[in-house]
Specification:
Tetracycline Repressor, domain 2; 11 helices; mainly alpha; 2 domains; single chain
Length: about 220
């Protein structure tokens, strides 16, 4: 009986050997000794298989990092860094597939279909750690902007993913550097800054502007 994992493994083997998706589910199923119905009981298409591989990488990463003894003590920034480092460490085991899959993607401003489930996993994780960071006072709860923090983190993730695909450094050390610098810069923007003080002061003046008239200024 075919399983989700066996189909994923067979699919990866096929595309890396042939350089393209199978011509049909029938041929793929026959080649792997399964009934066509078994495939469709688990996936609706080959794109769905590819989506699930990316999404499972994220869900596996999240499950693993949450078992760390220090997880409860981590700040939102440290949790994001832990995810990034762990995800790309896990991705090394599927480097050839990731390169094949990513290089098929047409550049656009929308999330590629193959990464939609990955994005859902990533955003659910991001929303949780960002909200906890706001509640603990680590991050600034900016009206209208705080809801966009997850989007900024996703953009950073996609940047690092594309960087990793093209990284030829030993042990992908340049990617580790990109993660450290990119995530830290992103979280610096989420924290309180002099601009927040200036905006609050401007809001205060707008609310209490009548005081100067009462004082004779």
């Amino acid at each position: 009986m075919a399983t989700k994992e066996s189909i994923q493994t067979a699919y990866i083997d096929y595309v890396l050997t042939e350089g393209e998706q199978p011509r049909s589910v029938y041929i793929f199923a026959k080649h792997n000794g399964m009934a066509e119905e078994e495939f469709y009981n688990l996936f609706g298409s080959f794109d769905a298989v590819e989506q699930s591989i990316w999404a499972d990488l994220a869900s596996k990463t999240i499950a693993e990092i949450k078992t760390q003894e220090v997880w409860a003590q981590y700040s939102a920034r440290e949790r994001a860094l832990s995810f990034f480092y762990s995800f790309f460490e896990l991705l090394k085991s599927k480097r050839s597939f990731a390169t094949y899959s990513a290089k098929k993607i047409h550049k656009s401003f929308t999330t590629p279909r193959v990464w939609e489930s990955l994005k859902n996993e990533f955003e659910a994780f991001s929303i949780t750690i960002l909200q906890e960071g706001i509640e603990r006072g680590e991050l600034t709860d900016r009206k209208f902007f705080a809801d966009k923090y997850k989007d900024a983190l996703w953009i950073q993730f996609v940047f690092v993913l594309n960087f990793w695909i093209n990284d030829m450094s030993a042990g992908f050390e340049k990617t580790d550097e990109a993660i450290e610098k990119g995530v830290n810069v992103t979280f610096d923007l989420f924290q309180r800054s002099p601009i927040d003080n200036l905006l609050e002061y401007g809001k205060f003046l707008a609310q209490h502007g009548g005081i100067k008239e009462k004082m004779g200024f």
